[in-house]
Amino acid sequence: MAMMNPEGRINFEPNSATGPAGGPRESHDIGFRSFAAQEEGPKVRERSETFADHYSQARQFYISQTNIEQGHIADALIFELSKVENPAIRLRLVSHLPNIDGGLAERVATGLGIQEKIKPAKPAVAPRTDLKPSKALSILLNPPKTFAGRKVGILVTDGVSRSLLDALRKEVVAQEATVEIVAPTVGGVKADDGSRIPADQKIGGGPSVLYDAIALLPSEQGAAALMKNGAAADFVSDAFGHLKFIAWVSAALPLFKKVGIAEDLDEGFIELASPKSVKLFLNACRDLRYWKREETVKF
Q1: Is the pTM of this model over 0.70?
Q2: How many helices (H) and strands (E) does the chain have?
Q3: What angle (nearest 5°) sits at the alpha carbon of residue 298, between those of residues 294 and 299?
Q4: CA–CA gap between residue 108 and residue 123 (Å, rounded)
Q5: What single string gives the DSSP state of each residue in 131-171?
Q6: Type and span of the H or E element at 62
Q7: Distance CA 100, CA 129 (A)
Q8: How far apart are CA 82 and CA 70, in angstroms?
């Protein structure tokens, strides 16, 4: 039980920043101790020997991931450890990774710019090598196989095709997902049939990061106006960078050129040439992300 709140940047032990005299320390004399009651034997606080194995579980989890997921784990470690100011502490933390996977350790060390050869930390218990990969531990190997509960952000302008928008909305609802209309103003737009379409979000207040997939349905005149809108450029480029499926009409091509991705249109981009192509887009969205794009998009 904590009896006080330590002050300063570090409130755990052991650490190398406060020195031998500073920082909180476990105390055998005044720390918590169980009452030894004679029952069938002495009552003690004792952990199983397996508690000393700090790496086997992590190793099995890592080798059970797909290449994409392993990359995400490495990128997360690189990001977090890049915030550690002391190079010696960074190196010490990375030294634990060879006990999990040598490739992971090398990838993280390279991402952090560590020049020294990584010497593995000495484990209290050697990690097990008999544990096999488990499909149940991977998210990508257990996809939801449905787009239900997800949300599509549809960027529209004046002159949007009402028939195409209605077809898209109908298919999204049929797959038990939801739609939000994103427009230059929250007041909405006028469709090609003269009807008024209210908006749920204005572009600057409804960025594409809020949606699981996006659709770009501007008219040619509307797309020309969006070329001068920085939030519209971000809407497109962020969706591309976050590997989202993107439905589009031909009028949106100038937006792709503006953000520099016109040459990178992959299978995650589905052109809505007619209302019939809407189903193709929503079926693709069941994968949630177009993971192959990660090979060309680097952070």
Answers
A1: yes
A2: 9, 8
A3: 125
A4: 19
A5: PPP-GGG-STTS--S--TT-EEEEEE-TT--HHHHHHHHHH
A6: helix 56-63
A7: 10
A8: 18
Residue 96 banded pLDDT, cuts 50, 70, 90 = very high
Helix or strand or coil: residue 208? helix
* pLDDT tops 70 at residue 66: yes
CA distance 251 to 255: 9
What's the number of CA atoms in the CB half-sphere (13 Å) around residue 276?
A: 0
Q: What is the torsional sign of CA 45, 49, 54, 60?
A: negative
Residue 204 burial (10 A CB sphere; 0-12, 13-18, 19+): middle
| Residues counted in the chain | 299
Which domains are assigned to the chain?
53-128 (1.20.1370.20), 151-290 (3.40.50.880)
Cα separations (Å) of 28 from 25, 49, 107, 240? Answer: 10, 21, 41, 56
